[in-house]
Amino acid sequence: MTELSGASILLVGASGGLGSELAEILHSKGAVLTLAGRDQLKLQAVGVPGNIVTGDVTEPGVAEDFVQAAVRHGGKLDGVIYAAGVVAFGPAAEVTDSTLDTLWQVNTKAPMSLLRAATPELQKSAEAGGSPFMLALSGVVAESPTAGLSAYSAVKSALHAHFSAAGRELRRIGIRLVDARPGHTETELSKHPVAGDPPPFPKGFEPRAVAERIVQGIEADEKDLPSTAFAALG
Fold first, then answer.
1. N or C: which end of the chain has fewer CB within 10 A?
2. Do residues 191 and 172 make contact, with C-beta atoms less than 8 angstroms apart?
3. 3: in domain
């Protein structure tokens, strides 16, 4: 079991619909939080005690800054959660290069960079007897690429592939990677796409329930959270 009480955790995307729920649950478990994102006022509005750091994680050096801020605040780094993301809708033939770049930078490159930046500190946690982890959310589209979401499906599938391969590398030094793939969740993500118009989704999961299942998986040392892990929430 992974003990969250006293664990130093960096939560990127902490002001989002899912990130804010994760922040509340982790705080209730006694975690020492560093809440990261682009907007300080939104991070403060989450209302959860923690060290607030701001920056655009897609920019060079920001991932490293976030990691060091968490180490300074918690004295170590035991966990990283990447809960930031953007979505775009529309036919594959109409997705612009600008949209493709944004989807890739936010949903794939940023968590890959964050993993690289966090690895040395997570390894120190493992060497000290901890159970360090990093969790990201590729979502159900990584399992079932969806028409009208081809570009989004592609970058999330790439994230899933990266975590699958990197997880085999990093478990040798005691770091656990977790990819969570819940289905459609009732956050603001789909309501504010970077391109296109959202289709009429069926009612999705409640963010609180998804966040609770994710934290449960972290505590139980689960190595993967596929879509079936969230099926009972519906």
1. N
2. no
3. no
